[in-house]
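One example given next:
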Amino acid sequence: MNTPQIIHGRAAAPGIAIGPALVFSPVAAVDVPTASPEAEVAHLSTAIAAVDGAIAALEDQLRGAGKDEEAEIFSAHRMLLDDPGLSDRAMALITEGGLSAALAIGAAGEEQAAELLALDDEYLSARAADVRDVVGQVLRRLTGAQGLAERLLVPAVVVAHDLGPSDLVSAPRERLLGFALAAGGLTAHSTILARALGIPAVIGLGEGILGVAEGTPLALDGAAGSLQIDPPAEEIARLRGAQADLDARAQALRAEVGLPSVTRDGRQIALVANAATPAEARAAREWGAAGVGLLRTELLFLERPDLPDEAEQLALYAAVAAELPGTPITVRTLDIGGDKHLPAFPLPHEQNPFLGWRGLRIGLSRPDILLPQLRALLRAGASADIRIMLPMVSTLDELRHARALLEQAMAQLAAEGLAQSASPQLGVMIEVPAAALNAEALAREADFFSIGTNDLTQYTLACDRGNSRIADLYQPLDPAVLRLIAMACEAAHRHGRHVAVCGELGGDPRATALLIGLGVDELSCGPGSLPLVRAAIRAADSGSCADLAQRALACASAAEVRALL
């Protein structure tokens, strides 16, 4: 029996895919002899218009099939294509830099993608793949290069650095068995589409995977996050059996969408969703979410020359609330930092941007940015249950300063005769160790806590979660992180406060019982994770969860905690 090579990445979309490898590389911006700048501008304009028309047709096709969530992805792609930051920059590179149309759009796209990849937020960083997807379509129009659909002539497991949504939707579904990515993100649109379309996927496998020989037999397990290269026949048989079990489990989970998220002994755990758009809120509703536990607001501010005004912000919050009527919508105020670059709000270079001017620190020192957002949230709260959540809180003084600004916004709206929330809730994110250590004082004055496990892990372990060299140190299940979560829960409950988890750990069903045992009242995760977490809640027992939590807190390492789970 041959021994297969097994590579582990991140589970992105469940399912088993068994087939030959197809290694796919996106089209490159090749250097070609240029015509006059005027001719190159015309070539680029024609290509952009053609791609816009193709995306519009795809969007209409998806809406006609009742797939509004998927259609929204391509609506956003059309906005990217129309973004002056992309097209105007490319045109300038032609007229001022003498580049060809292909080189210019390629360079402009990479500039935008690099800015997005530098952001300290996985959801926003994942938008880089969308930029590259749109640019790749324009490049194919300019160069005549083949896309994935033209390459995928037989059923195969696609191996790539990353994939764009257009690659997935255009590829023949019966030939796209699954995909294995060197990079990718759990919140990337390609990953979201893979889950929606039932395409097994594993991401974050590393650049070495791109060296696999074309046609090599592969076995991909999207639930386990593993890829086997040249697996033996008995392993293939085992995986096919596992796929049959997965299919049966998926049917059972769909049937449980309307069931309450309550443990076997009757403890209610609020199950809500992370979202950034009305489309994601709609998907959350379809999976039975009881509201939104984290509404990211940064997308509204990115890639535009001006800051969104109060009316634009109000429209977003109202649209999200309309998708989940009668449920709480928790909105995080603008969370940007020294490593994030907004055209409308240039930020200074900092030696340590993760420890610098970011999150609430910016909002408090720039009330001209925070006040309009607070006003919009208060106005949205006149007809919906809008809750306000402050990011990057370290001290009680910051919470008090923010509450003073909230009261100022309330006074302004009252003076203007505008309807607003009668009793807005103001909560804090526990994502800095100091906030967990100061939880007793914060709990006296905050209305709720939401634990951001991604940043809490990063700051507790002094481990940049975007640095691949120390990726093994980034362990959300490290006992030090768990002790801070327990500390925050205990302090909050002493003062009758509600505690949520909105980080990645909240969407991991393997950690659900542990989080319940630590005292968490609410779990917020991506729409696709809702059915799995609901099942984990309903399988749990409060007493057993509490015992598990105590055993985990006594562990010496994350490895020991994982063994417990």
Remarks:
- The first strand starts at residue 5 and ends at 8.
- Residues 37-143 form a domain with the Enzyme I; Chain A, domain 2 fold (CATH 1.10.274.10).
- The CA atoms of residues 62 and 70 lie 7 Å apart.
- The chain has 23 helices and 16 strands.
